[in-house]
Write a structure and sequence with these properties.
CATH topology of the largest domain: Rossmann fold
CATH superfamily of the largest domain: NAD(P)-binding Rossmann-like Domain
Strand order of the largest sheet: 5-6-4-3-7-8-9
Mean pLDDT: 91
Low-confidence stretches: 1-8
CATH architecture of the largest domain: 3-Layer(aba) Sandwich
Distance between the termini: 72 Å
Number of helices: 10
Helix content: 40-55%
Number of domains: 2
Oligomer: single chain
Shape: globular
Order of helices and strands: HHEHHEHEHHEEEHEHEEH
């Protein structure tokens, strides 16, 4: 990738990059139905955005439409996968095999999109050595060796908040380039390590806030008005 291309991708808003995944999911669902093309207006309508927004999001990365046709669905799927980096298989290390970690491992959607959990780690003696889907849960002390041997680039952290920074440091030391964190804590990481964090409690708090706002904005109805 040239310096100009790198600079261009660095200017892409996070929201635009996130919408690419939504475009991809919708395009893949259309492909199953046998659809061959889609317009920016149709794609926008399906996802609740504007056609201009669709064109702008895709325009950060190139020109993918055809005059009089719109977008060829198969072509656009290929191009978006290249942009997202999911045109290849990513080996992923899962750290933490408690209830959340086990649920994440069983989720088949990861592999469908190119993410293969190829190693599992924990520090619980009761879990270490347990066979799981063709893998053995390893001691976290084996992390660096396993990452190097298994060509692992990404790590998922399903660990308690109190151990999250220590685990993140271990992942970075092992050579992991991207971390997906489920612990409710802000991590301190080097600039060359990508980082996504999901705090499920925060998401529920946001949901409850929006429900509260909807209820407060709803017109008041007197329950006795029809009596």
């Amino acid at each position: 990738m040239s310096e100009g291309e790198k600079e261009s991708q660095n200017l892409v808003p996070k929201a635009a990059a996130a919408r690419l995944s939504l475009y991809l999911r919708h395009l893949e669902s259309l492909r199953i139905t046998g659809a061959a093309t889609i317009s920016s207006k149709e794609l926008a309508r399906a996802l609740g955005v504007t056609a201009a927004q669709v064109r702008k999001d895709l325009g950060y990365f190139g020109q993918f439409g055809f005059p009089g046709i719109g977008y060829k669905i198969e072509n656009l799927i290929v191009e978006i996968r290249k942009i997202l980096g999911t045109d290849r298989i990513w080996n992923v290390a899962l750290v933490g095999y408690g209830s959340l970690g086990a649920a994440l491992f069983r989720y088949r959607g990861f592999e469908k999109q190119g993410f293969r959990i190829s190693a599992i780690f924990d520090n619980n003696p009761a879990v270490i050595g347990q066979p799981v889907g063709g893998l053995l849960v390893k001691n976290i002390t084996a992390l660096a060796h396993a990452v190097a041997e298994g060509d692992i680039s990404l790590g998922i952290m399903a660990v308690p908040a109190e151990t999250a920074q220590e685990v993140a440091d271990a992942l970075v030391f092992a050579g992991i380039s991207g971390i997906f964190n489920f612990a409710p804590v802000v991590l301190s990481l080097p600039e060359n390590v990508a980082y996504v964090s999901i705090d499920l409690t925060v998401q529920l708090e946001q949901l409850s806030f929006h429900v509260k706002q909807l209820r407060e904005d709803a017109p008041f109805e007197d329950p006795g008005r029809d009596i």
